[in-house]
Structures are given as structure tokens and as C-alpha cells.
Amino acid sequence: MKNIKCNVRKSIAIILSGIGLLAICFFFAFCNFRQYVDVSLFNNDIVYYLIKAFMVFAFVFLGFGILVILRSVLLYRNKMIEIGDDYLLDKSSFACGGEVRYTEIKSIYIKGMFLCIKLHNEEQFLKKQNFLKQLLMRANKKMGYEYITISDNFLDTNLFEIKKLINEKITY
């Protein structure tokens, strides 16, 4: 069994940059920024309130994202991906695949920054997931990836090595 751990430095850098963006969104969403920025466009009330509404949405979205990242890093820091003898356990992101048996895997490939795992029976696997994960996995599929994707953003091992480790366990 091989455990892929969290890269703490990368995670802290991503969390800190997210907190910086969160502070900017907070400023625009909850402060009267007209007094700090001298642009005639902000004198129009419709534009001003549209920007504020967008920033409230961005604040909530970024805040949720930072909490999810913190949860993953704190809870699964030592075991974000577990490569067992007959299964792969992915806890590396909010839309992670969870436990996948090697017999369910049809193929593995790297596309861009993601390790994509194609399954034999994707719809059956999707039905096992909760509603939010189903939405996120379907969004992955619509963007041209697979339902299960692994990013190395928070991992201490690169995708090529992870793919090699998984391929050693699979019999096609």
C-alpha cells in the first residue's frame, strides 16, 4: 500500500492567496468603496450594486473553497490518495472519487494538469455519489475530462508517478 501525502507548502501558498482574494472581495462587498476609488463609473448606482452583489457571491464562493481546502489539508494531510492492493482511495479534492476498485477502471491518462480515470460503468459509479459530487463530476465530464480527476495541486507526488503506481496494480 502506498500513501500519497499533502504538500504542505503548496497548500499554505494556495490558502494564503485565497485569503488575500477573500479580503479584496470583502472590501468591495461590504465597504463603501466609492470613497476610496475615484472612478465616475461607480457613481452609477446600478453598476455599484452589481459589483457589490458579484463580490458578495465571490466572497461566499472563495470562503467555501478555502474551508474545503483547509478541511482536506487538516483531515487527510498524511493520506490524500491511498493506492491499495485492489483499490484506489482518493481524498485529494472536494469532488474526489472516493474508493474505486481497480476492476472498475477502464483506463488512466493525463490531460493537462489532471490525471483522468475512465471507468467501465460510469453511471453506476456516479449514482453512488452524493448530489453535490455528482454535479461536480458531471461538470468535469462536460469540460472534457473524466468523472474522476486527480490534480496534483496539493500532492507531494507528481501525476506521472501516481499514474505509474496505479498502472502497476491494474490488469487491463
Compile the SSE list and pairings.
Elements: E1 2-4, H1 8-30, H2 45-76, E2 81-83, E3 87-90, E4 98-101, E5 105-111, E6 114-119, H3 122-127, H4 131-142, E7 148-151, H5 159-169
Antiparallel strand pairs: 1-2, 2-3, 3-4, 5-6, 6-7
Tell me what the structure shows.
The protein is of the alpha+beta class and 172 residues long. It folds into two domains: 2-76; 81-169, no CATH class. Helix content is 49%, strand content 18%. It has five helices and seven strands. The protein has helices spanning 8-30, 45-76, 122-127, 131-142, 159-169, and strands spanning 2-4, 81-83, 87-90, 98-101, 105-111, 114-119, 148-151. A four-stranded antiparallel beta sheet has the order 1-2-3-4, with helices on one face. It has a three-stranded antiparallel beta sheet with strand order 5-6-7, with helices on one face. Strand 5 (105-111) and strand 6 (114-119) form a beta hairpin. The longest helix is centred in the middle third of the chain and has 32 residues, at 45-76. The protein is elongated, with a radius of gyration of 20 Å. The relative contact order is 0.16. The model has no long low-confidence stretch (mean pLDDT 86).
Q: Could you tell me the mean pLDDT?
A: 86
Q: Tell me what portion of residues adopts beta-strand conformation.
A: 15-25%
Q: Which consecutive residue ranges, at least 5 long each, have pLDDT under 50?
A: none
Give a short account of the largest sheet: 4 strands, antiparallel
* Count of spatially separate domains: 2
Strand order of the largest sheet: 1-2-3-4
Distance between the termini: 20 Å
Helix content estimate: 40-55%
Structural class category: alpha+beta
The count of β-strands is 7
Number of helices: 5
CA-based gyration radius: 20 Å
Note the run of SSEs as H and E. EHHEEEEEHHEH
Shape: elongated
